[in-house]
UniProtKB/TrEMBL annotation:
Residues 1-26 are annotated as: Disordered. Residues 340-451 form the MOFRL domain. InterPro entries: GK-like_C_sf (IPR037035), GK_N_sf (IPR038614), MOFRL (IPR007835), MOFRL_assoc_dom (IPR025286), MOFRL_protein (IPR039760). One of its GO terms (molecular function) is ATP binding. Residues 17-26 have a biased composition (Low complexity). Residues 33-260 form the MOFRL-associated domain. One of its GO terms (cellular component) is cytoplasm. This is Hydroxypyruvate reductase. PANTHER family: GLYCERATE KINASE (PTHR12227:SF0). Keywords: ATP-binding, Kinase, Nucleotide-binding, Pyruvate, Transferase.
Length: 458
């Protein structure tokens, strides 16, 4: 069997107090899984990836930096570190609360960083969007707009369409998050209910040239979906947005529905002259991060397989599919020979179940819910270990990145009088894995290439 190597030093997982009999014993398998997650995150750090895609300063013009996303702080600092000291540089970037990285000593602040709410927008995000639109007014063809985009920007950069209030947008965002809609569906709606998304920010920058540098957090790396594509042409339509709203039974004000039906809220389309001369570069993708993790596994002596970086679907069901694969490998050596490590990524969804009267809302995100489905379907299969985590360090709105599943997860949970089915019923992955000491807590990672999942089969 391959050697198991410990991960780089990291803060230990924080968890709710639990009886010692329910706690997972320290295991080299867990440390290896954690080290693979760290390799995936490290490969997507903006300072390592942005320089190769940075354009030259415009001769005789200004460079204005704008952007939004959970990696926005690190991306802005990378630009500041790499941009020529004698070239003009200014701008405004919005990131999630608590996601501004520590500023390196001696690095001058040339780009203003502000914070706003995610995953549901707030007034700070609205103010940032208004300021950003004002900032790009009056530019000339000699000027350059550098737009830094990463996952989370749909919430962080919010400017409701005419007829919508911030409260309307917050309600619609929350309903989309709880509906089970995929990220492309959610962002189609968000684009058409915004005055800044879906290419509209690019229109506001005219006649300046726009270069968009993006970190992908979406299946397929469609740049028009990342952060709802504020500087990218949108092939979706008002009719598409209306269909999604109907399908998931999400209400919008009647006047807004009528404007969608008439096409009055249509977004700029591919081929529009306003995008002439603009450029888009992906500086980090989910697949690149999975490849980095696979390489780290191979260096530790393991055979590694990447299933896909584009997996979507209900989190618990994707967990069950992964469990079926892991059991097939463990029991029959098919389709992969054991021992091995299986990696996957993408963006799953969680449909929030109705709460029973008087019951508390469950806590957790899609990584934790994946782990619940996985643990339930593994049935305590010996020799199978797993980690699922969000690469931004935050699973949903909690303080953990994800959770571990071990061969004795169900047995330890039974000792703590916890049943997977009960926690799935109330979408409470956090409570389940916290009681077992199996949460992965990293804090914000300052990047975001979406879901990371690793199965280790001995």
């Amino acid at each position: 069997m391959p050697a198991l190597h410990p991960a780089n030093a990291c803060p230990p997982p924080a968890a709710a107090p639990a009886p010692d009999s329910t706690r997972a014993a320290p295991a080299p398998q867990r440390e290896l899984l954690r080290s693979l997650y760290e390799a995936a995150v490290r490969s997507a750090q903006p300072l390592h990836t942005l320089g190769a895609h940075l354009p030259a300063p415009p001769p005789g013009g200004r460079t204005v930096v704008i952007g939004a996303g959970k990696a926005g702080g690190a991306m802005a600092q990378a630009v500041e570190a790499l941009w020529p000291a004698d070239a003009p540089l200014s701008g405004l970037v919005v990131t999630r609360y608590g996601h501004v990285p520590p500023r390196p000593a001696g690095l001058p602040e040339r780009i203003e960083l502000v914070e706003a709410a995610h995953p549901v927008p707030d007034a700070a995000g609205l103010q940032a969007a208004e300021r950003m639109l004002a900032l790009v007014q009056g530019l000339t063809p000699q000027d350059l707009v550098l737009c830094l985009i990463s996952g989370g920007g749909s919430s962080l950069l919010t400017l409701p369409a005419e007829g919508l209030s911030l409260a309307d947008k917050q309600r619609i965002h929350q309903a989309l998050l709880e509906s089970g809609a995929g990220i492309a569906e959610m962002n189609c709606v968000r684009k058409h209910l915004s005055r800044i998304k879906g290419g509209r920010l690019a229109a506001a920058c005219a006649p300046a040239r726009v270069v968009t540098l993006a970190i992908s957090d979406v299946p397929g790396d469609d740049v028009s979906v990342i952060a709802s594509g504020p500087t990218v042409a949108d092939a979706g339509t008002c009719a598409d947005a209306l269909d999604i709203l109907r399908r998931y039974r999400i209400e919008v004000p009647e006047a807004v529905r009528e404007r969608l039906a008439s096409g009055a809220l249509e977004t700029p389309k591919p081929g529009d002259a306003l995008f002439a001369g603009h450029a888009v570069q992906l500086i980090a993708t989910p697949r690149q991060s999975l490849q980095a993790a696979a390489q780290a596994a191979r260096e530790a002596g393991w055979t590694a397989h990447i299933l896909s970086d584009e997996m979507e679907g209900e989190s618990r069901e994707v967990g069950r599919v992964h469990a079926a694969l892991a059991r097939a490998v463990a029991l029959h050596g098919e389709p992969f020979a054991r021992p091995c490590i299986i990696l996957s990524g993408g963006e799953t969804t969680v449909t929030v179940r109705p709460r029973r009267e008087g019951a508390e809302r469950g806590r957790g995100g899609r990584a934790g819910e994946f782990c619940l489905g996985l643990a339930q379907a593994l049935q305590g299969q010996p020799g199978v270990w797993a980690l699922a985590a969000d690469t931004d360090g935050i699973d949903g709105v909690e303080d953990n990145a994800g959770a571990f599943v071990t061969p004795d997860t169900l047995a330890r949970a039974a000792a703590a009088e916890r049943r997977v089915a009960d926690h799935l019923d109330r979408n409470d992955a956090y409570g389940y894995f916290a009681a077992l000491g199996d949460l992965l807590v990293t804090g914000p990672t300052h990047t975001n290439v979406n879901d990371f999942r690793a199965l280790l089969i001995e």
